[in-house]
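Record 1 of the preview.
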Amino acid sequence: MTPSAASQSLRNYLEYSRIGFVNILAFRLRYYTGVATYLINVTVYYFIWKALYQTDAEFARGFSFEDMVTYVAVGWVIRSVYFNNVDQNMASDVMEGTIALSMLKPVTIQARYIGQALGEAAFRLLLLTAPTALVITLIFPVQPPAGKVYFLLFLVSLVASVFLMAALNFLIGTSAVRLKSILGLLRAKFFVLEMLSGLLVPMTMFPPAVQTALSYLPFQHIAYTPLSIYLGKLNFAEVREALFVQLAWVLVLAVLGGWFWKAMSRRITIHGG
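->
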C-alpha cells in the first residue's frame, strides 16, 4: 500500500469513527440511564463478593476484598468503553438489505463497522464511562492504579480491548449473511464473554487446567488483562507478554474477519437496476 493510499484509508477510517460518534448522539438519553444501570451492577456484585469473603477470605487466590471491589468497579467502568453492537448492527443491515449500499462505498465493510465502533467508544467514554466512574468512586472504596506506568499500560490494554471486541463482533456479525438471524448466537456470545472475559470472575479463580485451556482463547484479554494491569497483578515482563498476546489476537481476529467477510459476501445477491 502506498503512503497516499494508506493516508486515504486512515481518513476513511476516521470518518466512519466520526459518523459512529455523531449517530449515537440520537440515543444519548439511554447513556444517562446507563450510569444508574452500571451502578446497580457494581452494587449487586459488591454485596455478593462481600458475603463470599465473610464466609471464606482465602478462596480468592491473590485478591483481597479491596482488590475485588476495585476489580468489579473498574471492570464495569471499562465495559462501558469496549462494549459495542457491531454484530447486531450487521445482522440488522443484512436483514434490511442496507448492507448492499455499504458495499458500494470506497472503503471496506470491516473498516466501516470497526470505525463506527471506535466512534461509539469515544462517545461512551465521555457520556457514560466518565460519569459512571465518578459516581462509583464516590460510593465504593475503589483503589487507584498500581502506579503511573501501570495506569498508562492499562490505557494501552483498554484501547486494545476496544479493537479486540470490535474485531470479534465483526466476525460474529458476518455470519448473519448466511444465518440471517443470529439472535441465538448473540445470546451465546453474551454469556460466554460475561464469564470468560474475566469481567465477573478473575481468571485465577478457575481451576489450573481450565486456566491453561482459556489462555489459548482471546476472551480473557478483553477484561481480565487490563484489570490485572490496573491492579498491578502482573510484573512488567508479564505485562509486555500480555499486551503482545492481546495485540496479536486483535490482528488475528481482524485478518480472520476480513477473510470470513470475503467468503460470505459472495452469497449476497443484490436485486434491482
